[in-house]
Amino acid sequence: MNANFGMVLVLLLLAPGASAQVYKCKGASGETVYSQDPCGAGSEPMKLRSNRAASESAGEASNRAAVYPTAGMSDAGIAERNSLQGEQARIYGPLEARTQAVNRQVAELDR
Q1: Which of 32, 58, 64, 80 has its CA 20 to 30 A from that of 22?
Q2: How far apart are CA 111 and CA 109, in angstroms?
Q3: Which helix (H) or strand (E) holds 104?
Q4: pLDDT of 21 strictly over 80
Q5: Coil vs helix vs strand at 33
Q6: Any idea where the domains of the chain sit in the sequence?
Q7: What is the DSSP letter of 17?
Q8: Distance from C-alpha of 99 to C-alpha of 97, rounded to nearest angstrom
């Protein structure tokens, strides 16, 4: 599968209100292939999920009201911040844990 097809697939999946059907199929050599056309008899389209619920609960509304005035961030900004924090923890977490372990060992040796 070439990179352009993958990018088109991602855009189709993320496009709001997209009404195209997507089918997940097995290719000739066993690879996964996504198609707009049914793969064979009895093929059913994939169920695509939205990133957001159709309506907002009272708790989500109160959280939004509390966060926006203090942080001045949109949904996209909050999602980006959360993603960045998660990646930083994934990347730097093991290094920080190792640093703490070394510092404890040095403190033990200093005693």
Answers
A1: 80
A2: 5
A3: helix 75-110
A4: no
A5: strand
A6: 3-110
A7: T
A8: 5
